[in-house]
Write a structure and sequence with these properties.
The protein has 448 residues and is α/β, with parallel strands linked by helices. The chain contains 19 helices and ten strands. The strands form two sheets. Strands 1, 2, 3, 6, 7, 8, 9 and 10 form an eight-stranded mixed sheet that branches. Helix 2 crosses helix 14 and helix 10 packs across helix 11. The N terminus is likely disordered.
């Protein structure tokens, strides 16, 4: 893909005018349908030559910017290259909205054919017996297909030796900072704080009337931000099999206490709960000097910032660390084999190197394939805008996002406990002790 086609550009321009900005235990999902999907799909496709295969594609948007138009344009280009396949993209709201709509479809035996869902939905979808393993499709490809994807992004895609999803709109959390405010405070504008001690010092220096030194979003993603402190101070919050959590370790209590103290003790950031969407708005409006946020907001910040800004790794404690985030492509089980085969073609198309590079440039998400960073368009973009490489480079220190069985309940347990600590309702130690006990109970049936 060298450039958007004339048809795709027309679709994009039209949509930009019309579209707004988007802000149980069960069986083993790895058995059966996916095993022969590649072969069966090829046979059925031949038998039905001349007919169009129709796909319903669910996708969410969790960052600012007209990404609906971008998705529609990419889909239109796919249909141009694959005239035998019609894809109906359905914008399904936030990640949470998309998960609810997908689960309802699965339960009604009317799932989407392909969907982008959070990578953390893996165990929940397997428990619903909703998705197919992709290994037979991957085996059709030349060479080691998965070797080009970053290992940190595949961590949430695989379990029990099988691959169930392909990374697409993926991210890490990075630190954004206002260089003008750094200069004003006597700080080096070319470097973000490198460790927890420096971040506390910088946040205090940058705080002034009407402006916060730092903001960290809480609503909906408290667990994700908590992971940053856990990874920087020791270990991840869960085991790789999704059956156990490690919430109340001394290192995690120390991390949550540090987060609480930034607001309650040092007054360098807002006390209580800060909304996910408010934080980038505050940053762009000069109401905060630094923010933790997804790299998926990078293009939005680049487009709308009226000041010079920097992007850096999250500060370290014992080491650097960030959880990955974002969405992967899943193909569903309760659909015809020819649809699964067509869906695989669509997934491949949407994640090809040139397209992954363009998607990263358009959105700020990290290009999921190593080869995307070797394309001319990405090399040119990175030379002009080096901040685009920060999240990619931080992948060396990244780990899987919190993902367990009974994932929605476990995430809510941790979110609620972190919020209780941040609002002063509980001490960090008591909050994480409570979260551990409740999560252990929620996962008990998976540990028998």
């Amino acid at each position: 893909m060298k450039k958007w086609s004339t048809k795709v550009l027309a679709v994009t321009l039209g949509l930009l005018l019309l579209a707004g900005c988007g802000n149980g235990s069960g069986g083993n999902g790895g058995n059966g349908t996916g095993a022969n999907a590649a072969t069966d799909g090829a046979k059925m496709a031949t038998a039905s030559e001349g007919k169009k295969t129709e796909l319903t594609f669910y996708y969410p948007i969790a960052v600012g910017g007209p990404l609906t138009a971008t998705i529609e344009a990419m889909t239109a280009e796919f249909e141009t290259e694959h005239p035998d396949i019609d894809v109906k993209p359905v914008y399904t709201g936030s990640y949470a909205d998309t998960a609810v709509k997908t689960q309802a479809g699965v339960q009604a035996k009317q799932p989407p054919d392909v969907a982008v869902l959070q990578s953390t939905e893996l165990f929940s979808l397997l428990d619903m017996n909703a998705i197919v393993p992709l290994d037979d499709f991957i085996a059709q490809e030349e060479g080691d297909y998965l070797a080009d994807f970053y290992p940190a992004f595949l961590a949430n895609s695989q379990t029990d030796g099988r691959t169930y999803s392909i990374p697409f709109q993926r991210s890490t959390i990075v630190l954004y900072y206002n260089k003008d405010m750094f200069k004003e405070a006597g700080l080096d504008p070319e470097k973000g704080p490198e460790n927890w001690e420096q971040m506390q010092e910088y946040a205090i220096k940058l705080k002034k009337d009407g402006r916060n030194g730092l903001e960290i979003p809480v609503t909906g993603f408290a667990y994700w931000m908590m992971q940053t402190f856990a990874l920087q101070n020791g270990d991840n919050l869960m085991t790789t099999d999704g059956k156990k959590v490690k919430f109340d370790t001394p290192e995690n209590v120390e991390g949550l206490q540090y987060w609480v103290d930034l607001a309650a003790k040092h007054k360098a950031m807002p006390e209580g709960v800060t909304d996910w969407s408010t934080v980038p708005s505050d940053f762009l409006e000069g109401k905060t000097a630094m923010m933790y946020h997804t790299t998926g907001n990078l293009s939005n910040v680049k487009k709308n910032a009226t000041f010079d800004f920097g992007v850096s790794f999250l500060p370290a404690k014992k080491q650097y660390g960030s959880p990955t985030g974002g969405g992967n492509f899943y193909i569903f089980k309760d659909i015809a084999a020819e649809k699964q085969q067509a869906a695989w073609k669509f997934v491949k198309f949407m994640t090809e190197s040139e397209r992954a590079a363009q998607w990263s440039i358009d959105t700020g998400y990290v290009a999921v394939r190593k080869s995307a960073y070797e394309t001319e368009r990405m090399k040119d973009y990175a030379a002009e805008f080096p901040a685009a490489l920060v999240a990619r480079d931080q992948l060396e220190y990244a780990a899987a996002e919190l993902s367990t069985h009974n994932n929605g309940k476990v995430m809510k347990i941790l979110n609620d406990s972190v919020q209780a600590a941040l609002t002063g309702g509980m001490t960090p130690a008591d909050a994480l002790k409570k979260a551990q006990a409740e999560a252990d109970q929620a996962l008990a049936s998976f540990n028998k």
